[in-house]
Structures are given as C-alpha cells and as structure tokens.
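Re: that backbone. Tokens:
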C-alpha cells in the first residue's frame, strides 16, 4: 500500500510505485474525488501506460460518484467512496487475481 494523498504529479516516486506493482502485479486506486475530475483517472492511465507488462489485470479504482461534494454531510457522504466500496474494490482485485 502506498499513500499518495500528499503527493503531486511532479513529485511522484515512480520507482517506488514500480517496485510495489512488481510485488503484487495489481493496483487498486482509492480516492475521494468525483469520477469526472479525479486525480486517480490520470494516475491509472499513467500506471497502465508505464507498467503494463507488470499488471495481471487492469487498474481498479474506487472513487466518489458523479455528485460533487457539498457542505451538506448527507450529500458529501453520497459523493465520496465509502468503506464498503473500498472493501468491494479489494475483493474484486483479489477475485480477478484468483486469490478468492
């Protein structure tokens, strides 16, 4: 697991990402951004382009919905990825890998 929440595009440690991907051959990106404006979409594209030969399956993503976050706690909760969705994403990766 690599926590990229505080990194920007210019400071990404691609070597660390490559080492991690070589260990598991799988990637799950979890983010709170909305589907259309997410950093994870760009990151998934870059990972698949740079490390395609190491991946056993496409990069999986868990992210917020089409709804944009707001000041309402109810709407904010609907917009961001929930714990259950992260667990489901991990299970998809493991199932596709044949580990479940």
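Recovered sequence:
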């Amino acid at each position: 697991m690599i926590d990229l929440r505080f990194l920007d595009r210019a400071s990404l440690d691609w070597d660390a990402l490559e080492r991690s991907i070589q260990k598991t051959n799988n990637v799950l990106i979890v983010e709170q951004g909305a589907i259309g404006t997410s950093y994870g979409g760009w990151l998934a594209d870059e990972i698949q382009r740079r490390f395609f030969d190491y991946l056993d399956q496409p990069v999986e993503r868990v992210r917020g919905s089409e709804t944009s976050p707001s000041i309402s706690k109810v709407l904010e909760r609907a917009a961001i990825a929930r714990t259950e969705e992260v667990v489901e994403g991990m299970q998809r990766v493991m199932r596709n890998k044949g580990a479940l």
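Residues 21-97 form a domain with the Rossmann fold fold (CATH 3.40.50.920). The chain has a mean pLDDT of 83.
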